[in-house]
Amino acid sequence: MSTAVSDIGAVPSAWTRRHLLDVESLSAEEINIILDSAVAFKEASANCAQKIPLLAGRTCANLFFENSTRTRTSFSLAAKRLGADTIDFSSSSSSLSKGETFIDTAKNIEAMGVDAVIVRHHTPGTAQLLAENLKCTVINAGDGPHEHPTQGLLDILSIRERLGRIAGLTVALVGDIAHSRTARSNIWGLKKLGAHVIVCGPSTLVSKRWEELGVEVAYNLDAILPRCDVLNLLRIQFERQTTRPFPSVREYALLYAMDRERLARAKPEILIMAPGPINRGVEVTPDVADGPHSAILEQVTNGLAVRMAVLWLTLGPTSSEAVS
Ligand code: CP
């Protein structure tokens, strides 16, 4: 049965969080509340509700200190769809250049009556720092290589939507694991929901220490490929590296790019994912990225639904506040 706007009532009583800082600290129940809420918002939006004004009168501020296409735009759109006002802060044209501290900048934005700050920063722990210093809701939109919780959640929703479950699946995260906040958020979420997770890439980008998180470490994509239900292809983050982790991009692509030949040796129902941005020909060839196994653009669509769910859960009326 599909969801109508009127079916989305109060925030479930099992959800008690004011912030979303990571996936690591979420329970399986909380993850499922986010995923189920996202499905409800997706269905309500599809039932021609362009606006679901559950957050009318609220204000959300995007504080992005790193570039973004998907996350920034979809948080803005999610807030607008829910009837909230939005502020887009640009660090390059701000008074940070005059010596104002990061926390003072955030407190000044909050003082304008902001209810939620959505922060992306290159330093791990930045969202946690803001949560400790602000009174409003803080949502982590990516803190360095630490976590990118809404990306992990939208990835998991996309898998659940296509394959019908998470428990029992084998999901491989392939590529630059060392610098990937998406990998960490996926690992925490997927493991809590019962998936087997493999991290795979060159040894310079995949330490054996990842086994301490309960995942399988692999260096040979062709060896693990027949066992995988999902491949999530992570971008090589050259901008975070001080030395090149492999001799050439061509060599990386030969060993790890998902192409037509590898697809032919994979499970027939294999799901190909990438958090984006993708580098065509490096992690994935264009025919695979644009082919029927790919969920890359579905991930973006689900990102909007997940971000609507997260804003609603953290800012929306609880059952005691809800107007009947
Ligand atoms: N996947 C992701 O975070 O993309 P953006 O950097 O474009 O937000």
> Percent of residues in beta strands?
5-15%
The first-to-last residue Cα distance is 23 Å
The description of the largest β-sheet is: 5 strands, parallel
DSSP summary: helix tally: 11
User: What low-confidence regions span 5 or more consecutive residues with pLDDT below 50?
Assistant: none
Q: Catalogue the ligands.
A: phosphoric acid mono(formamide)ester
Cα-based radius of gyration, to the nearest Å: 20 Å
Major beta sheet, strand line-up: 7-6-5-8-9
Helix content: 25-40%
How many runs of DSSP E, i.e. beta strands? 9
Labels describing this entry:
four-stranded parallel β-sheet, 324 residues, binds phosphoric acid mono(formamide)ester, 9 strands
What is shown here, in short?
The protein has 324 residues and is α/β, with parallel strands linked by helices. Helix content is 36%, strand content 15%.
Describe, in plain words, how this protein is organized in 3D:
The longest helix is centred in the last third of the chain and has 20 residues. With 324 residues, this protein is an alpha/beta fold. A 5-stranded parallel β-sheet has the order 7-6-5-8-9, covered by helices on one side. A 4-stranded parallel β-sheet has the order 2-1-3-4, sandwiched between helices. It has 11 helices and 9 strands. The model has no long low-confidence stretch (mean pLDDT 93). The structure holds phosphoric acid mono(formamide)ester (CP). Phosphoric acid mono(formamide)ester binds next to α2.
